[in-house]
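#random but structural
TW: two for the price of one
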Amino acid sequence: MNLTQQEKMAIPTAPEIPGLVFRHFNDESDYPILVALLSGCNAADGLERADTLEGVAHNYSHLEHCDLSQDFVLAEVAGTPVAYQRVWWEQEKDGPWLGMMVAKVLPEWRRKGLGSALLRWGEDRLSLVAARLRSEGSLLLETPCRYSLEVYHTEKARIALLEKNGYAVARSEHVMVRPDLEAIPDAPMPPGLEARPAVPEHYRRVWEAAVEAFQDHWGFIPPTENGFENFISEPFNDPSLWQVGWDGDQVAGSVLAFINNDENQALNRLRGYSEGISVRRPWRRRGLARALLVRSLQEFKRRGMQEAALSVDTQNWHSAYKLYESVGFRIVTGYSYFQKSLQPGV
């Protein structure tokens, strides 16, 4: 794409690369560009994921606290996209304000100063947003503010860049895989509880129960009014896979399992995800999570899957981790949340 002078934007710390220009987001015509950048970086960084046009479109049509006309930058060299960065913000429950960033630089354009320039741009942009929110009174002066990025452990170049710029790991997650779906252990439902299929009139109740249960987790960010619509419209969301435990008409817990068929096809595997494992407080420590997790594995096997995966907080070691290990999951990789306090005076 040939950029006009009006479309170009300046990044003062940008490296001197012939033909390098930056611009903000245009419209949905940028989605294929993002898919190409994500795919190139995934392959280089060993990330087992497949980003699709449908997935990017869904994500970008449900963004919150993100103004794409200001909070997105695309880097091109001689008209060829080589990198991008997007920023937004979140507010933890009773916790810090987080200036979030995601950036991708194609491997052949790394170690040239481009990643550093985008990181600095993101920090500057988020600092301005935090200052504006404080001046409006919607962000309290005493609320701590941090930059935050989610980085997989295989993204070595990204980790090195962040550590060089003063970021440190605030929390980590393990990705665990059950490499087969044979010899699934027995795990009956606890007395007084039953598993029933999710029906449309219960979808929101199941989601709200899961949100309530996750309030106890580190980094919990309360969803906005659009949270349910965003969740239920995910391309790979399939309520027929959910495992929901009921106590009468009360949702006691659930596993919001799913199968990402696009990813399975791209990676030549048959995997289901037992994610969204939650139990509300009154029903904890009764074996409900185990029973629902085992039911999700059984359903994956019934549908022809050959393995299952999930993620777990590394500091939730003696409860969730031990449970997942006991039903056959093993650690294969992980990711960390790198954070740094906003610049002084912001």
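TW: number two ↓
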Amino acid sequence: MNTPALESAARPRVDFDQHSSEHAADWVSRYQDIRRQSPVAWSDHHGGFWLVSGYEEACQVLRDPATFTSGRFLDEVGRLAGGISIPPLPFRLVPTETDMPEWEATRHILNRALSPAKVKAFRDKTRAYTAALIDRHIETGAIDLVLDLANPLPALMTMELLGLPLDEWQRFADPFHSFPSNPAGSPERDKAAEEMGWVFEQIEALVEKRRKDPIDDLTTAIVFAERPEGPYPHAEVVDILLNVIGGGVDTTTALTSNALWHLHRHHDDRRRLIEDPSLLSAAAEEFLRFYTPIQNQARTASRRCVLGGQTIEAGDRVLVALASANRDEREFEDAGIFRADRFPNRHAAFGLGMHRCVGSHLARQMFEEMIMAVLARMPDYAVQELEAERYRGIAAINGWVRMPARFTPGERIADEVRLAG
């Protein structure tokens, strides 16, 4: 019988650090090499964790929340550990970093607020905001596809959903854009963490305001939610709202900016979408697969188990590489090729199982409105590649800092919509 020491020595090992600049520069090839070597392998970085890079193995983890938990807990020295990130985030995301039964009540509230029917009711406003954002630049023939469109639109819609003032959208969005775009330990990331303090303050003030003056928004629904154990404590409401803002602001920005970069580089795909807009729904799923915005999700093993032929011990940390799983050749034919009409397309970009992204319907809607508007109003746009800038760190989200573009000027079309910032 193998001893723990021998089992540990027999682990397939990879020199993998999701926070490194080397990973950000060549993540596609690196993941491909690791998948072929071992779809479940051990990395000694960040205290040690299992990297799950294969699709089948990723599905096993994400669909078994009892064995692979998402919750936060205090470790043996009293530090907050666990959760969906390695290393753990400095704050707790609710319900993303919770397990049953805590997860159920909160997710139920968010499911109702972000159901397909509720999201559909936001379509006209999403379209109006998109048109207004483009109108600011349409007559000039120049736009930054990230800073002027893909970043503000998700922020505005998230503010609308929560009942936050639209004229503050940029102060809310900037730290959520900057924090994941820079590597851990960088001055820019530290500054973004400091700016999060202002966001905390505004959310706390909003929660208190809604307790005294409720209106029809998601914040009010959470503040006055009826649960068997009673209302949510103030701090937990703040955690939930942070989760909503974090999930709503930068992920759709990353997806949209990568899609616009792809269409800049691949004119055949651009022409197909312009000539047949009905193809956009299928293409959106392929953009999600090919340019997975949320790169990974972490879990903690609650018991000893076997995954991909490897023995996982209770307490082991597990990092599911969604971006790698979505390019697994065992699941996707020609996985390294973008096919706008790929079907079926069982990608895992939104996660799987009970923690599947609750905002996926709104994300798709915002993405489709932005892409349709760009292709209709600036179909000949060309990214100024020397000025475009990718995220320096993609441990959490794979996006772009800026993406200046030029196009043939057009005319304003939108009714006047007040968009401060």
